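FW: tagging you since you asked about this chain on Friday. Here's the raw sequence from the shared folder, copied in full. Didn't touch anything.
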Amino acid sequence: MNHKHIVKYTLFLISVTLAIVAYPLSADDEDDDNIDYSEWAIEDLLQVRIVTSVGKKEQSLANAPAAVYVVTSQEIKRSGVTTIADALRMVPGLHVAKTNAHTWAISSRGFNDFFSNKLLVLVDGRSVYTPEFSGVWWDTVDTVLDDIDRIEVIRGPGSTLWGANAVNGVINIITKHAKDTQGGLLSIAAGNEEQNITNLRYGGMLDEATETYFRVYTKLLKRDAYANSVANDEWHSTQAGFRIDGQPFSKDNKWMLQVNAYRAKEQDIHWLTNEAGVTDAKGFHILSSLEHQFSEDSTLTTQTYYSEYQRKLPVVSSFNKVFDLDIQHRYAVSKKHELMWGLGFRWLYNKMYNNDYFFFDEEKRIDNLFSAFVQDEIKLSEKHTLTIGTKLEHNDYTGWEIQPNIRYLWTPNDKFSLWGAISRATRTPSRRGHDASFAVSLPQSQNPFYPTDLVSQYINNPNVKSEEVLAYELGLHNQVTNKLSWDLALFFNNYDTLASARQFVTPDLANNRIFVTQQMNNDLTGDTYGLEVNSNYRPTEDLSFNFHYSYIKMSLDMAELPNIVDSAKELEALSPEHQFSLLMSANLSESLRLNTWVRYVSTIKRLAVNPEDVIKYYTTVDLNLIWSITEDLELSLVGQNLFDKQYREYFPNRTNPLYGEVERSFYGQIRWEF
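HL: got it, structure written out here
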């Protein structure tokens, strides 16, 4: 689909939507516990939408001095997505790409790959970052989508508050308070790709005196394989859990307990032999938090969690245990100074099961992470706010790391704010680069030099360093009218000691062999810069538009060493320069709502591997028609990728060779509250 078609389809859909809603229509009334913010005026919306991930406290979206976007529960519902990963496509500056039916590559501000190691992902403050490979297994980051309150996404470093690995962004998935999910919910979705998604949830009150509420849930998922896949990649999973919220002892306490468990099985292949196999993933976690308010000026929050997860892939298996304790205290020293400090400890146990292909120096490894942070928010005047802080962290790979930042916010009036930030962040090495090795002779099917033997080997590097970034950001929030608002974020990032696989090609002609040797080193440096624009427009209470555009340019350099394959250009090309999204929502009547979503992603290439291998730019169009049959019964009909039969979104890599093409899909969903 060329650029003219993109414009044509977009204008056509806008025209149809505007024509449909040209008649006077009324909106549905909703309970206070399930407020539909999409029908609020823009000026109210910016003040009501609260973010907590920027400063680890509640603050309005308009006054957050960072490039932050909030995906609301209503936006998730109207987009028609069925996974958390796909919901992130609504966020400017994020590149979300699917390799196969159960695998995503997601990154913020460049460097996208199967393991996007510069993006920290949290669920209710619990890290789901994978220490053995530095990334996120997105197939296991899931819950009942109706139970998500919001997804807060910070583009840019968040390490001062959240620690290492929050280099290019932080994603915090925040689920609803148990009080807001009372009663029962049953939803069933089925279609040609989404073969079965069943959610069953029930919530109630445990104790009225302490305002203690609970909810329990279970979720079943089965997804069909993608088209033109090198092997079957179908996926099915089961999960269940519960959450309890209450105010024990006094109204000054807020307590939460959360338990979840999952099991997923996915058709996969062995990275070397391409033989079919199964990936088996299972795990559980227990999370608890307690907030005590001493006064309006002083609040202490303690959070702890324990998690276990095991993942058996056709090529390598791992088992992890994590215990985490985090203490945070907020104290208003005076009207002009609000001090926040915290301490953290994390214990990580990781076991990698050695086999004929992969082996580690030691199968078992235990790491301890200690951290402390302090941040001072200084009210210079009524219109000027300065925030300074730093994180001090010790890990068992590189020792002490310091990650400071300084942020400035200018709010001349309640409709405009300007902010700027300078931050330093680091990414800690993983076991994959630090102590993993492999050595194999490639089979004839993967050996272009046959009958010469081709030996691929990977050598560990216990001296690999942390990656570093010095980030400069400038942004603004502007409410133009009570119907139109927009945000702009500009960024320039300077990277040092970036990790890359240094690759040597060494012929051994005497023995009729060629060695391809890789080792993780810190050979890359470089810069990235770009901009992100987001706009909300609501011409009437029955019609809304959400638009975003992002641009990024990367310039990376690799150390000039003899006989080395340059991977800098490869990394530069793996993220699209341009992305565009337009989500339109229209009330057709009191019971019908039409949602239309248009997305465009520019071309990406694999220059260092094969200059001819490209992911051509693509445009997707999704429609979601929601019919409220009664107050408690709802039917949705969703069509995705309507203008393309199928297309590729990303490349396979050595550790994830299974790939396919995203297909046109349709599904229907019935949703019943009882």
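FW: The chain is about 10% helix and 60% strand.
HL: agreed, and Helices lie at 3-20, 42-48, 73-79, 84-87, 159-162, 431-435, 568-573.
FW: great, closing this out.
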